[in-house]
Amino acid sequence: MEQSPSPANIFDLFSLKGRNVLITGATRGIGAACAVALAQAGASVCLVQRPPTENAPANHETLNSIRAVGATAEVVYCDLSDLHAVKDLFSRALELMGGEIHVLVNCGGIQRRSPSVDFLENDWDDVINVNLKACWILAQAAGQHMVPRRRGKIINFCSLLTFQGGLTVPAYAAAKGGLGQLTKALSNEWSQNNVQVNGICPGYIATDMNERLLKDPVRLRQISERIPAGRWGEPKDFAGPVVFLASDASQYVCGELLVVDGGWMGR
User: Fold this and answer.
1) Torsion angles phi and psi, residue 44, rounded to 5
2) 11, 12, 95, 201: which is deepest, by most CB within 10 A?
3) Could you tell me the pTM of the whole model?
4) Is 172 one of the annotated active-site residues of the chain?
5) Residue among 77, 172, 204, 252 flagged as catalytic
6) What's the gap between Cα 224 and its chain centre?
7) Contact 140, 63 (CB under 8 A)
8) Could you tell me the domains of the chain?
9) What is the C-alpha to C-alpha distance for residues 131 and 86, in angstroms, rounded to an integer?
């Protein structure tokens, strides 16, 4: 049985010095906050970003924030809705990161809202492909890399809709429910190889993905009144959880879906 040596200082358990991280969805919101936090903990970070276009130039804000704290940062361009490109993503990132990735964070995602009776098939496919299938492709590639090395961390960003059905978001609920089960399935197989697979489930967070809810005074009031913490979450609320799950502090945490929701699920 493998045992990690006891650290001289408890904070050493949370250090990511010498670790390479691949993270999707890090150009804004929760993903950006997580990428910077991982870098602050000592990691070198590879950011997955959409290929720049004339109408959507490259966003280097997260990249610059990471480099500002003295950490190494690289960018690999990939549209997560292009599954053919996703299949090559991990190997491309490996090359950029010197042949080893210790942590994969699947944070990229999209949302489509519509009553289920009117929900478009294309919208369904887009949400399932980005929020579930792309995560599976990357997690499988990470497992093929990490399992033989008997070392690694995979963190999937799930949702409250991993547990609940939501309203007018059937594809998102299906994808996040599936991602929660995928997290457990991979953990069941890979924990014995010292690869911990866990999920983080955000509650209602003030990001652009929830812009429609934030602008709807009725839904905003209904949701806000039910959050015991008395506020919506912010991206910075995920800095601690992601560093914990990426570090040696969580070596015996396997197949867990860590809810970060201000107490919503407790009600």
Assistant:
1) -90, 135
2) 201
3) 0.94
4) yes
5) 172
6) 24
7) no
8) 11-266 (3.40.50.720)
9) 12
